[in-house]
């Protein structure tokens, strides 16, 4: 246990974890029908590749990733596709639970590219909350040297015990999953950050650590305080490294993964099992059998809560996620997705509505709890005044929206709501500003596509000519000089611009999962079209070249 | 957004979450009780009449202005901030001040200093100290009518409150406060000679000390309940003590001892109840330290070199003036940023 490093601020809200951490992790009953939204991750929604009436097995791909930041979607029950819409796919189950698995991979021997491809195919995204596609995150090593993989098991939000139970039941497997990621990103060191309010999980980890581990793993137990599970806060706490503003953990050589994600990675690699289920904490005073369940993605929240003994008259609201950062569900007829880590069925008494707001008295309590050392109260004034220049000067975009300031505010000012509004207002303005830019990029994309089509036409033409030229006498057909060197340079440049576009897209998407990526995807597509065109031209030229050099 | 609220949650951990604003105000009012009780014990019921009158004026004026401004009256009044201003101003005035004096002070405090600036949370100056300062410069005679320690029910209490006491008699009632007496001891007189002449009526010094300790007790309660943060009182008392010690050590025959500065006059009252008003104080922790230290330094400078013997009100108001600047230059460095923004244009994220 180390207290050497610390982040500022933080709060100690009531933990309320006992409600869901007393019973073992069990499978939820197989749902009869599932609804799978196409957007269960940051980036672009997946594109359906099944039609109504198709028979699917558990693990069949039903929607493919679209664009770079995206993720595949798999059937989580076996049965028949009953609905395909622009936003979701429904499957009626046959009750058979027939599986379709990929072949097992031995991660110790497999090539990194094969492992990456497996993660890509398996539709794995970060299960901690933001849902960033894991294969993209794993490719971070192409741009950054990673020294440490952090397993973020802090789970600092009240109520949630999903990671706690995952570790208690699957500590060995989580560590093996971590080894896979460490191998992929070249990390020499794995560090587990866990809060001291999970003694059983810590015990399980210690036990698992006594087994042989190829890469050294260090377990660090930190005192319970919200929000130590914030990626940046945990990295500060464990390694005393400060992730730069607007940057990523990779900028300081660190990669963070949540235990659930690591377990899913192992399942994908070792068992060939795509992401079709996850651990969900069911809790709150309005259910009688709280606990953690393995839930198939797409299961209805209502069904799940009713199986857990939902007391409907007592129920006031269901919160998805934790009480600090989660969101209240507008309807229970919504499915569990890859991002659903917790469902709190709360009574009115348990999580009452906020008291009426009163004026800010500038007490500064919010500042003293801010884990980023911002001035929430100044941000509040400027956000309300819509003074966007000032809120940015006071680093609004460094706010992690943890809600500690709102929690302590004696005037009950919903500070985080103000900040979110200000952020989206500023983002909207920026989007307006880049719209013209986007139009330009669309034009460029069209040009690139036309160029690529032209190059393809040329290639076909040349192939025909080559076929006609089979007879040895007609070699002199094409005598125009081919600038092979120029094409090689253009090819390298096109390749570099594709890489650059991918890099930008990955970075932006990871920094800010809510941001629209259309324009960047478009730029990437343009670069790819250009690359294709140049590749074709180069291939053509190479074919011609020997005929010119041979005489 | 946080759906957990500090109040209302049955097992909320109160140690770090703040009680709501209204209850903060009521805690501060409750914490003034030892001070007010001790003052009444030594200076008579006139103290209580001050507080009651000022509080009544505070509530009435706040309600009237809210009505004029067409703001919700009941909800806003519920925060008890006008009541607190009344209690604080009432406790600062000489015992049994006439009703009109209190009324004028409260008009300056509530109407001018607070509501004309936009109500709770918007006033740049401490309302009670604006009222006090206005009275001090406008009605110096009445503001120095500090009677020596007396019976709980002094003679002519009623006549003085309602203003029917002849002015000639007012002078006979008054006595100098220890700070006042020391201030006007005269250049030629050494401190030892001055004290030897026994300038104050019996018991005056010890009465003031007990009152100061009672304010200290209230302040400790506020600190323990985390109603106020330690930064301002500690910085203010620290700078008073430091400067007083420096002065005293440089020339004990002309300057009062640090303990004298601490335990007579409004030093402790000001440190815990006046300077800590969050609305008009600096906001960041570093800002609060500078703000408190500034008040302490100004108190010592005005007391030593200025024309007013106590100086807490002026020191607080002067530092209120500096708050925007302090806020600007005490911005902490956000995690992940190279340095604090200091209000300068930052990098576009």
Protein described:
The complex is a heterodimer of chains A (551) and B (349). Helices cover 40% and strands 14% of the residues of chain A. With 551 residues, chain A is an alpha/beta fold. In chain A, helix 14 runs antiparallel to helix 15 (518-549). The radius of gyration of chain A is 26 Å and the shape is globular. The N and C termini of chain A lie far apart (76 Å). With 349 residues, chain B is mostly helical. The longest helix of chain B is centred in the first third of the chain and has 23 residues, at 21-43. At the A-B interface, helix 9, helix 11, helix 12 and helix 13 of A face helix 1 of B. Chain B: It is found in: Cell inner membrane.
What is the structural class of chain B?
mainly alpha
The level of helicity of chain B is: 55-70%
Low-confidence stretches of chain B: 7-16, 345-349
Average predicted local confidence, pLDDT of chain B: 86
Q: Mean of residue pLDDT of chain A?
A: 89
| Number of helical segments with 4 or more residues of chain B | 17
**Alpha carbon gap, first and last residue of chain A:** 76 Å
Strand order of the largest sheet of chain A: 1-14-13-17-15-16
Note the main sheet of chain A.
6 strands, mixed
Strand content of chain A: 5-15%
Shape of chain A: globular
| Alpha carbon gyration radius of chain B | 21 Å
Morphology of chain B: globular
Describe the oligomeric state of these chains in a short phrase. Answer: heterodimer
Helix content of chain A: 40-55%
Largest sheet of chain B: none
- What distance lies between the first and last C-alpha atoms of chain B, to the nearest angstrom? 23 Å
Strand content of chain B: under 5%
Ranges of chain A where pLDDT stays below 50 over 5 or more residues in a row are: 474-479
Most extensive interface between two protein chains, with residue counts: A-B, 68 and 54 residues
